[in-house]
């Protein structure tokens, strides 16, 4: 598909690390590994806001035969060291601990969230709000705050994030009246339940959300089933956006006939259209270290979002190497586009994505694409 606008709007070179929450608090030189996966919403003034994930990494993580990681503490930021012979460094984003009987990892960066204000159609940066940045502030966030998703429900903005620590890998909720000043409400989903997207509107008097629990074990569908076992997009409901109950019916599941969506998860918070809830989600085709990420879409029933009315099996958005060509020297992944936000702009939608775990991509998609 050809888009009227498709460009990177923010990337590592646009981040001023002298204004980072970590500035002067880490006893080592850092750089921006990626500025990506932005939550997006429309501000009261009509502009768009990106809540950009800034992955701040050590320039020299390996020193004296040890690999180091940044960790938040109550007083500052610490550097932890592990002997190189005890870790696997194949993935540039993380390193895996050898042995132990199960998967244990640490990150090569610590993520914080940077509010970047765009103009109304998302084509220009108006202001970067360093004074409103969100950084770790409690022990369950000591390895970072990642991947914001923002929904406006009524007069409240609700932002889910992934909070990372040895204690748990949890989903946390922030609330705001203006999408700039956020209050941490705490953990709302526990261990490794990622990609939580709160619907932009209630169904009756109930909040709904898409979730994506992860695990190392999945039970097989019977032979001949149209579904493939593995990570799927589940649903949950809540009376207050704080206490969530898993929905009894399944949500969007991988189809057995294709490997392109063998692994899947939520993308942009579902928005209500005349046909039903429009949801953009990601499918991952197994390939290489991390796989090929693409964006797909479905329409869900407005009264029961477990009912999928339509799905397009052709990708809506794919990775575009031309966008990252000017910063190709910073690339460490390819074939990854990860959609994280959508906003109505009249005849089109402004869609925000992370491109190559590196920069923020804005794409204008005509509403006719979903007809």
From TrEMBL:
Keywords for this protein: Glycosidase, Glycosyltransferase, Hydrolase, Transferase
Gene3D superfamilies with a match to the protein in the record: Glycosyl hydrolase domain, family 43
Keyword Amino-acid biosynthesis among record annotations: no
Domain of life the protein comes from: Bacteria
Single GO MF annotation: hydrolase activity, acting on glycosyl bonds
Classification via Pfam families: Glyco_hydro_130
Identification of the protein by name: Glycosidase
Family under the similarity heading: Belongs to the glycosyl hydrolase 130 family.
């Amino acid at each position: 598909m050809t888009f009227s606008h498709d460009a990177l709007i923010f990337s590592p070179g646009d981040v001023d690390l002298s204004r980072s929450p970590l500035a002067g608090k880490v006893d080592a030189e850092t750089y921006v590994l990626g500025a990506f996966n932005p939550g997006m919403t429309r501000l009261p003034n009509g502009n768009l806001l990106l809540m950009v994930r800034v992955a701040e990494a050590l320039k020299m993580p390996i020193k004296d035969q040890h690999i180091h990681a940044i960790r938040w503490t109550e007083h500052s930021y610490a550097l932890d060291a592990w002997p190189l012979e005890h870790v696997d460094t194949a993935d540039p984003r993380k390193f895996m601990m050898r042995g132990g009987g199960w998967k244990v990892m640490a990150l090569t960066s610590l993520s914080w969230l940077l509010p970047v204000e765009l103009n109304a159609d998302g084509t220009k940066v108006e202001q970067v709000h360093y004074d409103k940045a969100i950084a770790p502030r409690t022990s369950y966030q000591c390895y970072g705050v990642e991947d914001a998703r923002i929904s406006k429900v009524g007069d409240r903005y609700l932002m889910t994030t992934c909070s990372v620590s040895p204690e748990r890998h949890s989903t946390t909720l922030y609330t705001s009246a203006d999408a700039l000043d956020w209050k941490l409400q705490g953990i709302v989903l526990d261990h490794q339940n990622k990609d939580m997207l709160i619907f932009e509107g209630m169904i009756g008097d109930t909040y709904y959300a898409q979730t994506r629990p992860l695990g190392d074990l999945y039970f097989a569908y019977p032979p001949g089933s149209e579904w493939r076992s593995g990570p799927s997009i589940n649903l949950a409901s809540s009376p207050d956006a704080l206490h969530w109950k898993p929905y009894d019916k399944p949500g969007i599941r991988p189809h057995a006939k294709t490997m392109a969506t063998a692994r899947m998860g939520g993308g942009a918070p579902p928005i209500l259209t005349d046909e039903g809830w429009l949801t953009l989600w990601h499918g991952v085709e197994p390939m290489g270290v991390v796989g090929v990420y693409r964006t797909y879409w479905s329409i869900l029933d407005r009264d029961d979002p477990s009912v999928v009315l339509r799905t397009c099996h052709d990708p809506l958005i794919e990775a575009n190497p031309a966008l990252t060509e000017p910063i190709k020297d910073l690339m460490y992944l390819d074939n990854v586009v990860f959609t994280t936000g959508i906003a109505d702009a009249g005849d089109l939608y402004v869609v925000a994505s992370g491109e190559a775990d590196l920069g923020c991509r804005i794409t204008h998609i005509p509403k006719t694409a979903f007809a």
